[in-house]
Amino acid sequence: MTSSPTPGLVRFNTSDDGAARAALHEVCASSAWGSKLLAQRPYATTDALLAAGDAAMAELTADDLAEAMAGHPPIGRPKPGDPTSRREQSGVQESLREELLELNLAYQERFGHVFLICATGRTGDQMLAALKERLRNDQDTEREIVRTELGKINRIRLTRLVEEGAAA
Question: Is cis: bond before 42, omega within 30 of 0?
């Protein structure tokens, strides 16, 4: 990806801990994940930051994952006023929202949390198909799929944070 620090990465590396923690919380609601990334600053490259994010994701406990998932709205219902949520869920057509929300409730009842999928680049039909398929998973399988999907989301958001120069 990036061989030298971007202006956004420099800004993230040099921002005060409170601002950097807030920026990381916007990427992932897990405080353990954010703390691990914060403790390793400064990052020489975006790739180093992404690798640290992946390593921190792999270490999250079930409780940490639950905290991270609590920061995500259900597919088909982006957080009001949240441009990140709206952008990530832009592939959901209005005609699918009701079915997605209904199946999300069934998923939530089965697994105890919202259905989490990296929605970026996926159509509403693809997300609906994945939701139907994943409803058949057992708890352990689904937890690891969630970890993988959350990792994908975090990588996209971290990249946007440091590549687009979003202030930390």
Answer: yes
CA distance linking residue 8 with residue 99, whole number of Å: 39
Query: What's the DSSP call for residue 62?
Result: H
Do 29 and 67 contact (CB within 8 A), yes or no? yes
Rounded Cα distance between 159 and 118, Å, is 14
- C-alpha torsion sign, points 87, 153, 109, 137: positive
Residue 56 contacts residue 32 (beta carbons within 8 Å): yes
Which phi-psi region, left, alpha or beta, contains residue 60 (left: φ > 0; alpha: ψ -120 to 50)? beta
Question: What is the rounded CA–CA span in Å between residue 79 and residue 116?
Answer: 14
Q: Tens of pLDDT along 68-115?
A: 988 887 766 555 555 554 555 555 566 777 888 889 899 999 999 889
Q: Is the pTM of this model over 0.85?
A: no
How many alpha carbons fall within 13 Å on the CB side of residue 58?
6
Give DSSP secondary structure letters for 85-148. HHHHTTT--HHHHHHHHHHHHHHHHHHSS------TT--HHHHHHHHHHHTTS-HHHHHHHHHH
> Which residue matches tokens 């609601």?
29
d(CA 163, CA 48): 13
